[in-house]
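Practice record 12: protein with S-adenosyl-L-homocysteine.
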Amino acid sequence: MQHTFSDTTFCIRTFGCQMNKHDSERIGGMLEGLGSLQVDTYEEADMVVFMTCCVREAADVRLMGQVASLKNLPVRSASKLGRRIVAVGGCIGQRDGEKLTTALPHLDVVFGTHNLGSLPKLIGAAMESGGHHVEVLDSAKAFPTDLPTAREHGWAAWLPITIGCNNFCSYCIVPYVRGREKSRPLEDVVAEAQAYVDAGVKEITLLGQNVNSYGRDLYGTPRFADVLDAVDDTGIARLRFATSHPKDLTDEVIERFARLRSLMPALHLPVQSGSDRVLEAMNRRYTRSHYLGLVEKLRATCPDIALSTDVIVGFPGETERDFEDTYRLVEEVGYNQVFTFIYSKREGTPAASMHDDTPHEVVQERFDRLVDLVQDKAWQSNQADKHTTVEMLVEGASKRDRTILAGKSPKNQTVHAKLPDGVNADDLAGSIVRVAIDEARTWYLSGTVIDGLSAARTQQTDAR
Ligand code: SAH
Ligand code: SF4
Ligand code: F3S
């Protein structure tokens, strides 16, 4: 297998959520381990792997266009394969399997969410013979995290603690394409976290569709608070998690925001709607008042906590009054960030057969109204940090302006600071510096670095 992949190049395009991004890192790790080189563009790539998402229709449509565009793209001159191998995995691969090869006849490989590890074998088979090589499994044989990873940043790691979802929110396709919830044994989670810390990782994000129910399948009772304690004990600088379902967020977990040194004061708590009637139709299994009660407890425990959420506008049968309930909830909570989505009908989900007669223009107008509010509230929330000092985990130079250092605050806000003289932004990536904030905008804070540059300066002196 090693021999097959040597002197080849591959490129991965990822759509969708962090779980997919993490799966892409595992695929990158596997293919690199076999001797293939990861490249950024389709032109340079002998193999292109699409990691797909079908949570909303827009993501589906984009894939088709991108795969079709590869058909007539010349193969790179040094390619030993003589053609480009195209593979589709992720959630569309899982949902459509063999069917994809009818819509996209030049596809070589289709794989699903439960068999990432089979990709080298499938690509190897495609190298040997033409035709379609499809493998999609109904469920995962084992928790698929014993695969290597090629992480995007050396200082940040995603760590899946559960895969799949048992919640079946009525609009959502995820449980059908990711299967039933499976937790990973606590010892394995801790061992991986410790290995990251030992390798210099500064931030770990625990991943799951609903991390709060971690452990129910293994231990009979959720043990997410134990995971937080154990990962905090590894000495990680920053700990985050996503996603947290409001119905399962316990007092125990909330209390960790006050107690654990590494747990950052930021929580993504998707509300979806502020109307009890809609929440029930969505099968979310909490009420508006339960959700607001959680927000109250979180703020009592960690007054500075930054909250973010997801909202769906235009769920089947949503009335103006339902929407106003959502609008008022968003106004009341004052989120730092809200991801707003227009409802997208997903075949096979219960909501797809619900009566839906709200005209698109009405939904769009509600959506626009909400986005305006979200922006006002984000700006307002950020004002609390003006004239304070925040610790920024440096990501590197800003993509738009190389003289600006960019990173993230504990509350997960984007922070910008002028790059100090004599410092290379790349040397600082992954370090934590203190920034005095003098400006707070809607989507970022900016200021001046006042502390924490010694690492970069020492490295620079050594280099001379
Ligand atoms: N497990 C996570 C993430 C699910 S997908 C959670 O429960 O929050 C991310 C977001 O996509 C959801 O929170 C929801 O707001 C949105 N979403 C899911 N299905 C959708 C659909 N059919 N139409 C529009 N938005 C949808
Ligand atoms: Fe989808 Fe609901 Fe599961 Fe999230 S909790 S993945 S929204 S079914
Ligand atoms: Fe999309 Fe699959 Fe994630 S449908 S949101 S990539 S679980």
